[in-house]
Amino acid sequence: MNELSTLCLQFFFALFATCGFCIIFRVPLKNIPICIIVGASGWLSYQISMYYDASPVLSCFLASCVVGLLSDICSRIFKEASTIFIIPGILCLVPGSGMYHTMDAMLKHDVSGSASIGAQTLMMAGSTAAGLLMIGALIRVIQSLIRKTASLKK
Fold this sequence. Notes:
Elements: H1 3-24, H2 32-51, H3 56-77, H4 83-90, H5 96-107, H6 111-153
Helix pairs in contact: 1-2, 2-3, 2-4, 3-4, 3-6, 5-6
């Protein structure tokens, strides 16, 4: 199986996973297709950056930036809160397997393994939060600049 077909499969699996999260979190029916696209795009950007040998931490950061940006754009277009799009969209990026492997290493009394896996998992979770935070802050700065330039023109 070549890389393109693997990426397409990953995209479709992320579509279904995000759809499941939308159902669990009771996203309004009209917003589910948009949330699905946001979540699958975030996962696809994670996989593409991993394909180009980026670290998992950097890949999580870039993917969460994509999710944050798309969520903000969709919230403005569809006049909804951005959290409707962020929460289901970001859940595919949560490093749950890392936490599982950390706990598994702890139960096997592998201190160095649990420390290294746990540290990477925490960095991935932190980079996910940092990506969302950075995009949110960047959008606020751009809005502020637009408002100031609009008020100067008056």
